[in-house]
Every structure is written in structure tokens, then in C-alpha cells.
Design goal:
Structural class: alpha/beta
Helix content: 25-40%
CATH topology of the largest domain: Rossmann fold
CATH class of the largest domain: Alpha Beta
Number of strands: 17
Distance between the termini: 21 Å
Mean pLDDT: 92
CATH superfamily of the largest domain: P-loop containing nucleotide triphosphate hydrolases
Bound molecules: adenosine-5'-diphosphate, magnesium ion
Largest sheet: 8 strands, mixed
Strand order of the largest sheet: 3-4-5-2-6-7-1-8
Radius of gyration: 24 Å
Shape: elongated
Length: 427
């Protein structure tokens, strides 16, 4: 349901942002801070005024991690706003990304592009832009970001971006936010920074804010709620709670017998000196996931995994639909493909993306681990981010990614592979 703009409420910060004349902003303006603090909708609401001020001589670009994220986060609100409230028109061709926005008698040629991949920069070479909106800027590839800035050559060109905080090693923090906060005059000439917390979104209820605050702890609370750019440390799944998230194996078997669990699939992480981990995961009719069983052992061949899968399909009297496996061992995956009835995928998800999906499941109590899965449960207790000293000692120093320490992570990887595939493809 699109926003009812006539019911909008405005905090002093939102009011100040909306009231500032477009040409008084520098080249790039970043709205960052807590989730749900109104960053995206403030920019959407400002776009008609910005377009009117810039004119329609040049191309205007909307980017996000992918074209789809721009559509889901931005166009879904921008289109009804322009059409139903301002009497304009938005024509979007999702295949080419071309978009024409007609407003107050002028047509603005726009382009929607994904900026998340290293090859996305090829899509935007050449051409002059006078407007760029980067939704979730930290999710863009660094090369895309630089290329985009270099396209904004007209004197009246303006760029706006929103972002949730990431690690303080991220290029956006290091190159723009930190120097801005330290008062660097060169950065302040071209960059403006607006920081939002949930309290700056007058449209959220007190109850909603309180509930959100309960969902996060530690570094993630600092980022998501307070909107701070800090390095993640401590446990990766720090909201995993033994009381709430473990179920006795017998109770899980009962759920299977009562057909409460509707689909079964596997996540597999291959190892040799380190263990191979194979997790059997089930999902119920409400979208709750159960880790039902685990195979965990060093120095086992694909044949052992195949016979384990056969045995478990008989034991639980259910067919398993697919396995998503570590892509480092294609020959092992081929053996599974030939000798089991499962569809075998080899899709390695980005660590940060899959961790945040798993975290979300845990936060909403939608991931339950059987008491049988002792190795998986042990890893929940130890899977962690490096401490600051470990980080400075390691060569990771310049890396902007938040990567957990790579020990005792076999079950955690298998869990990510299986859940990510199901969540992104079948849900
Ligand atoms: N002007 C507004 N009018 C009505 N609701 C709003 C407005 N701005 C924000 N909201 C509400 O707050 C939510 C979060 O806003 P959004 O801009 O998506 O936050 P962010 O981009 O900071 O995560 C929206 O889904 C909407 O429910
Ligand atoms: Mg947003």
C-alpha cells in the first residue's frame, strides 16, 4: 500500500531537509542513519522540487544494488506520489531501465541502473548526468560510485544518497563521512551529511521503535538503531538464544510426522582436514526454519554424504528437494548430482548478505535448531568477528567487509548456503 502523504508527519530534521532549496545543496548529499528513519522517503518527497530546479537538459540516474532494489525501495513510492498527488506520470521500462517522468509539463529522461557488481560500471560509461539518486549507497561498487560522480559535470548537477551504516572501514566512511565530521574543508565543499535516527521519523509509533530496539544487540544495535558506523565485533549471531531457539529432537520428529514441516533441503560445506558439514533443514507452513539433523566429519568422501542423504530420507520418510553446496568442490557436487534425487545448486552467497538473512530469521524467532545438532550449536557459541587487535594484526586492515573469523565455521557456512538459497529463491 503506497504511503498516504496527506497524513505525513514531520520531525524538525525532516522539515529542515525538505525546506532547503535544491541549489543550496553541494554536489553530493548523504542521508544516513538508523533503519526506518525516513531517509528514502525524504529524498523521494524532495525529487519533484529538485527536478524542477535542475531542468531537463541532461539524463537523471537512479541506482541501487540492482535495478530490482531500486524498484522495490524507491519506484514503488515515487510513482504513486508523482501520479496520484502531483498529477504527473512515470513510465518505466524495467528491461532497459529507461524511465520517463513527466511533471508540470516537462518530461525528464531517467535511467535506472544496478551498481552493485564490479561490471556494473560498464553500463554507465559515457554521457552527462545532472541528477543521481543512489539508494543504499554503501551497497554500490566503489568503481560505480566513482564513475557516477565523474558523470555529474553540469554546474547545477546534484546527487543524493541514502545509506544504513556499515563498518567504519567502508570507503564511504573513510573518504567522505569521517573527513566531513572532522571538518575537512575540501570534503565539505562537495559533500553534505544528514544523520537520522528513528526519532527523526515522526511517522513511526512509539511501540514500533521500542520493538525495533529489542531486535538488535551489540554492534548491530549501534548500527541499525543508533545509526553509527562501527566495526562489527563479538558473536555473529549474538541474538541466538538457547532457551528460545533450540528444540528437543523428539518434538521436531513429531512436527515432521504431523506434516507440519512441508519442505526439506540441505546446505553443504565441503572440507577435508576441516570438516564437511551437511545440514538437513526443513521449513513449516509459517516460514519457520528447522535445522533437523547434521552430518559433521573431517576426511569423508562424497559417497559418505550420499549414503547419509539416502539414510536420512528413509529415516524421516521424506524426500529432500535440493542441496545448495560450497562451489569449491565441483567434482563432489557432480557426484551428488548423479547419485541422489536432489537438485544440486552450487551458489555461494556473499557472506554479509547471507549472515544478515540468518540474523533476521533468528531475530524473529524463525530459526530453530534440533538438540541433535551439537556441532551446529557449538558453532553458534563461537562464530565471531575478529577483535580490533586481531584486525590490526591481520592483513584484513584495508578491507571494508565485515568477515567473521574463519575457524569453526563449517556448520555456519552450510547453514548460510541452505537458508540463503531457500529464502532468495523459494520463499
Ligand atoms: N513522509 C512520510 N509519510 C508517511 N510515512 C512515512 C513518511 N516517511 C517515512 N514514513 C514511514 O517510515 C517508514 C520508513 O521510511 P523510509 O524512508 O523507508 O526509511 P529508511 O530509508 O530510513 O529506512 C516508511 O515505510 C513509512 O512507513
Ligand atoms: Mg531506505
Amino acid at each position: 500500500m503506497p504511503i498516504k502523504w496527506e497524513k505525513s508527519k514531520y520531525s524538525p530534521k525532516a522539515r529542515a531537509f525538505l525546506a532547503k532549496p535544491p541549489q543550496e545543496f553541494p554536489l553530493l548529499t548523504l542521508l544516513d542513519g538508523a533503519v526506518r528513519s525516513g531517509k528514502t522517503l525524504n529524498i523521494i518527497q524532495k525529487i519533484p522540487q529538485i527536478f524542477d530546479s535542475i531542468g531537463n537538459d541532461n539524463l537523471k540516474v537512479f541506482s541501487g544494488y540492482s535495478k530490482n532494489t531500486v524498484r522495490n525501495n524507491v519506484l514503488i513510492e515515487l510513482k504513486p506520489f508523482i501520479e496520484n498527488y502531483l498529477g504527473g506520470n512515470v513510465k518505466y521500462n524495467s528491461a532497459s531501465g529507461e524511465m520517463d517522468i513527466t511533471l508540470w509539463g516537462k518530461t525528464y529522461p531517467c535511467l535506472v541502473v544496478g551498481g552493485g557488481d564490479s561490471d556494473s560500471v560498464a553500463a554507465i560509461q559515457g554521457g552527462t548526468w545532472d541528477f543521481w539518486y543512489a539508494n543504499e549507497l554503501p551497497q554500490h561498487h566503489y568503481n560505480f560510485y566513482n564513475m557516477a560522480l565523474s558523470r555529474l559535470t553540469p554546474a547545477n548537477a546534484r546527487a543524493f544518497a541514502d545509506s544504513n551504516p556499515e563498518s567504519s572501514n567502508h570507503w564511504l566512511y573513510q573518504e567522505k563521512i569521517k573527513p566531513y565530521l572532522e571538518g575537512d574543508p575540501d570534503v565539505r565543499d562537495v559533500f553534505e551529511y544528514w544523520h537520522f535516527t528513528m526519532r527523526d521519523n515522526a511517522n513511526l509509533s512509539e511501540v514500533f521503535v521500542k520493538n525495533q530496539e529489542k531486535l538488535y544487540k551489540g554492534a548491530f544495535k549501534a548500527r541499525k538503531i543508533d545509526g553509527l558506523w562501527i566495526i562489527a565485533d563479538g558473536l555473529v549471531y549474538d541474538t541466538f538464544n538457547r532457551e528460545k531457539h533450540i528444540l528437543n529432537a523428539l518434538q521436531i520428529i513429531e512436527k515432521i510426522q504431523k506434516s507440519e514441516i512441508k519442505e526439506f533441503f540441505l546446505g553443504i560445506d565441503w572440507g577435508w582436514n576441516y570438516s564437511t558439514a551437511c545440514l538437513l533443514i526443513g521449513v513449516d507452513h509459517d516460514g519457520k526454519y528447522y535445522v533437523i539433523d547434521e552430518l559433521y566429519s573431517p576426511k569423508i568422501e562424497a559417497e559418505s554424504v550420499i549414503s547419509w542423504i539416502d539414510k536420512k530420507q528413509k529415516e524421516y520418510n521424506r524426500f529432500f528437494s535440493f542441496a545448495n553446496c560450497d562451489n569449491a568442490r565441483p567434482e563432489q557436487n557432480d557426484k551428488l548430482r548423479h547419485s541422489t534425487n536432489l537438485v544440486i545448486y552450487e551458489e555461494k552467497p556473499k557472506i554479509e548478505d547471507s549472515i544478515s538473512l540468518v540474523r533476521e530469521l533468528i531475530n524473529y524467532d524463525n530459526l530453530i535448531i534440533s538438540s541433535l545438532c551439537t556441532h551446529t550449536l557449538n558453532e553458534f557459541d563461537t562464530y565471531r568477528y575478529p577483535s580490533e587487535t586481531e584486525r590490526t594484526k591481520s592483513l584484513l586492515g584495508g578491507d571494508s567487509a565485515d568477515l567473521p573469523v574463519k575457524v569453526n565455521d563449517d556448520c555456519m557456512d552450510a547453514l548460510r548456503y541452505g537458508l540463503y538459497k531457500h529464502l532468495t529463491t523459494f520463499r
